[in-house]
């Protein structure tokens, strides 16, 4: 079992920044690819960003097109924590953000069905 706890959400004005954190406990954190999803009001959960292995790179990042250049994902295996730095926030970024752990280390395929563990979510609200 892996337990994931998000923090760092809140209310911010458009153009502002937030940093989300996800602390993991349980099984070996470094054994999982880690990602962030979000669920806007009234919509389906969608992929935001992920960090996984690719070749010899243990920190390869995938991003959804709508966050490229604005969001940055990172991980600190010593602290069992994954981060999502969100800059230039827009009102359409308003959503509940979920941390996710995937046992498959390599490859894309960041569908919700691929996820082994979820956090409880943290609310991000961007005002215009």
Task: Give the secondary structure arrangement, pairings included.
Layout (H helix, E strand, L loop, with lengths): L1 E6 L2 E4 L4 E9 L6 E7 L6 E9 L2 E7 L7 E6 L4 E6 L8 E8 L14 E2 L3 E6 L1
Parallel strand pairs: 2-11
Antiparallel strand pairs: 1-3, 3-8, 4-5, 4-9, 5-6, 7-8, 9-10, 9-11
Name a few traits of the molecule.
128 residues, mainly beta, four-stranded antiparallel sheet
pLDDT < 50 stretches: none
Rg calculated over all Cα atoms? 14 Å
Helix content: under 10%
The computed structural class is: mainly beta
What would your notes on this structure say?
By secondary structure, this protein is mainly beta. Helices cover 0% and strands 55% of the residues. The chain is built from no helices and eleven strands. It has strands at residues 2-7, 10-13, 18-26, 33-39, 46-54, 57-63, 71-76, 81-86, 95-102, 117-118, 122-127. The strands form two sheets. Strands 2, 4, 5, 6, 9, 10 and 11 form a seven-stranded mixed beta sheet that branches. Strands 1-3-8-7 form a four-stranded antiparallel beta sheet, with no helix packed on it. Strand 5 and strand 6 (57-63) form a beta hairpin. It is globular and about 40 Å long. The chain starts with a strand and ends with a strand.
């Amino acid at each position: 079992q892996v337990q994931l706890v998000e923090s760092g959400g809140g209310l911010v004005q458009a153009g502002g920044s937030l940093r989300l954190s996800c602390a993991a406990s349980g099984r070996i954190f470094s054994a999982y690819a880690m990602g962030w999803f979000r669920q806007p009001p009234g919509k389906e959960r969608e992929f935001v960003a992920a960090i996984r292995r690719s070749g010899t790179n243990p920190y390869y990042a995938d991003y959804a097109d709508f966050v490229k250049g604005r969001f940055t994902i990172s991980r600190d295996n010593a602290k069992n924590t994954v981060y999502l730095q969100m800059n230039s926030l827009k009102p359409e970024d308003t959503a509940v953000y979920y941390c996710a752990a995937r046992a498959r280390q390599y490859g894309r395929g960041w569908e919700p069905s691929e996820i082994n563990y979820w956090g409880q979510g943290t609310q991000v609200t961007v005002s215009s």
